[in-house]
Design a protein that fits this description.
single chain, four-stranded antiparallel β-sheet, alpha+beta, 1 helix
């Protein structure tokens, strides 16, 4: 009886080993196996402009990029608008579909004094991604229009 049990057990082990080996070799033939360590990331290329309410460009405005749903900062230091009011940047970070762009006047009266404002934007589609790299997104941020601060009398 124990010989019969031993033979059945040995035969079923051979069958299972054969099936599992076949599955293993079948999976090994799949397209380019990749070791995936880390976290998903995407490349962002962003540009925009900061103006006053009349459409005149404002230089020296601090532009901060955050996640629209929390306070996660995407750049270690804020951007600054150039003389023509434009700013642009390219960076890699966790892929998000909604970002908040915050514009703040940090130079005091030098270029006029303006109230801070922000705009939430949808990033849209990421293109060209593979594996952990989700792809690239080009974002044209709508103009941010800042109001002049009321002067105290």
């Amino acid at each position: 009886m124990s010989n019969l049990y031993h033979s059945i057990l040995k035969g079923s082990n051979w069958i299972l080993a054969g099936l599992l080996s076949g599955l293993g070799f079948g999976l090994a033939a799949c397209d380019e196996p990749v070791d995936e360590y880390g976290a998903p990331y995407a490349e962002y290329k962003m540009k925009g402009k900061v103006t006053d309410m009349d459409g005149k460009a404002i230089q020296g405005i601090s532009v901060t990029i955050k996640n629209a749903n929390n306070d996660y900062l995407y750049l270690p230091s804020p951007l600054q608008t150039r003389e023509d009011g434009n700013y642009d940047t390219t960076f890699e970070s966790f892929p998000e579909h909604a970002l908040r762009i915050i514009a703040e006047d940090i130079d005091g009266e030098k270029n006029g004094s303006y109230e801070a404002d922000s705009v939430d934007i949808e990033v849209g589609k990421f293109e060209g991604g593979k594996s952990w790299y989700v792809g690239k997104a080009e974002v044209n941020v709508p103009d941010i229009k800042l109001k002049k601060k009321e002067t105290e009398k």
